[in-house]
């Protein structure tokens, strides 16, 4: 029921309130003499895990186990530790304790805990909290998405997403108007990186055929490409209307579960980045994501042409 979903969202905010100070403490201690102990494991030289990722996930997981009987849990560090975490129809908390771990290690202040909840394998509640910038993003399926501070009531004191400054962004009719975000991710084998580089080239290079003004507005190259270092907060920039498009192949369900709810509730779309038809469960577990911001055209929807154009530019 709606009341139940609201109580789950409040519980998600409670988890973010517990985790926030621990993440902040780690972030601000990173240059202390113990910093050498910060990295506890490297899956490869760019896939970083710190003792704070593990500490936060343990804390959140035990809070869920204690207070949400019968619910399941999928967490980045739990899976990395070798536990089987299949997605089932049970209410399932899908958590990345620190999304943007490389940012965390380097002191780039885009780090967040991402807490999603699925029911019947469908993302229904999302809570994303950046404790460094004190930004709390929340969403419930069918009830809108909000940006607030951690100690505020999102509905009473928060701002509904997408934000307007003071007007909503214009309709996104082509990529030639777009600020696009993507990532190289943590798999750096050339066969993974090369197609990403080609997609970035397609998004940014000027094609001679685009010199004709008519074609330039139809498919022109993007205004710019950004890489924020966190899937969850990149998608929150899309939800706010600050970035037009986010796409990435490689993130996991804990990076995007909460963000899928929030982007959609902010009027945007999240689909398979390779244009496959998917159920929500297949999308969530599929590791290929394309998010496009809301655009306020007459119908109030994101233009399907913009989504299609993004997919065509990106797919290799
Ligand atoms: C990573 C970040 C990064 C993205 C990777 C994710 P982590 O999550 O979201 O931006 O490129 O695909 O795995 O390791 O910082 O939790």
TrEMBL record:
Origin: domain of life: Eukaryota
Cofactor(s) annotated in UniProt: Mg(2+)
Pathway of action: Polyol metabolism; myo-inositol biosynthesis; myo-inositol from D-glucose 6-phosphate: step 2/2
E.C. number: 3.1.3.25
Binding site for Mg(2+): 76, 96, 98-99, 255
Gene3D superfamilies per the UniProt record, alphabetical: 3.40.190.80, Fructose-1,6-Bisphosphatase, subunit A, domain 1
GO molecular function: inositol monophosphate 1-phosphatase activity; metal ion binding
Entry annotated with the keyword Transmembrane helix: no
Swiss-Prot/TrEMBL keywords: Hydrolase, Magnesium, Metal-binding
InterPro entries noted in UniProt: IMPase (IPR033942), Inositol_monoP_metal-BS (IPR020583), Inositol_monophosphatase-like (IPR000760), Inositol_monophosphatase_CS (IPR020550)
Family: Belongs to the inositol monophosphatase superfamily.
PANTHER family given in the database record: INOSITOL MONOPHOSPHATASE, INOSITOL-1-MONOPHOSPHATASE-RELATED
Descriptive protein name: Inositol-1-monophosphatase
Organism in which the protein naturally occurs: Lunasporangiospora selenospora
């Amino acid at each position: 029921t709606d009341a139940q979903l609201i109580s789950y969202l409040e519980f998600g905010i409670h988890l973010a309130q517990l985790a926030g100070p621990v993440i902040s403490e780690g972030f601000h201690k990173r240059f202390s003499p113990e910093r050498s102990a910060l990295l506890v494991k490297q899956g490869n030289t760019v896939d970083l895990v710190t003792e704070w990722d593990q500490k936060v996930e343990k804390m959140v997981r035990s809070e869920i186990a204690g207070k949400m009987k019968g619910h399941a849990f999928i967490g980045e560090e739990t899976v990395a530790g070798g536990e089987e975490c299949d997605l089932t129809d049970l209410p399932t908390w899908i958590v990345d304790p620190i999304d943007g771990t490389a940012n965390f290690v380097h002191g780039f202040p885009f780090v967040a805990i991402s807490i999603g909840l699925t029911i019947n394998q469908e993302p229904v509640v999302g809570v994303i909290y950046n404790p460094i910038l004190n930004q709390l993003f929340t969403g419930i399926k069918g009830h809108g998405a909000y940006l607030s501070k951690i100690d505020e009531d999102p509905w009473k004191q928060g701002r509904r997403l997408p934000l307007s400054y003071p007007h909503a962004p214009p309709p996104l009719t082509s990529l030639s108007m777009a600020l696009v975000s993507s990532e190289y991710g943590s798999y750096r084998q050339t066969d993974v990186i090369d197609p990403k580089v080609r997609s970035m080239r397609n998004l940014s290079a000027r094609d001679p055929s685009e010199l004709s003004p008519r074609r330039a507005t139809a498919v022109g190259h993007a205004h710019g490409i950004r890489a924020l270092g966190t899937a969850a907060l990149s998608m929150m920039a899309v939800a706010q209307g600050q970035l037009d498009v986010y796409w990435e192949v490689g993130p996991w369900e804990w990076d995007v579960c909460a963000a899928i709810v929030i982007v959609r509730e902010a009027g945007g779309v999240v689909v398979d980045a390779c244009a496959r038809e998917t159920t929500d469960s297949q999308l969530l577990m599929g590791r290929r994501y394309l998010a496009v911001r809301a655009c306020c055209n007459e119908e109030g929807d994101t233009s399907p042409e913009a989504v299609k154009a993004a997919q065509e530019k990106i797919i290799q």
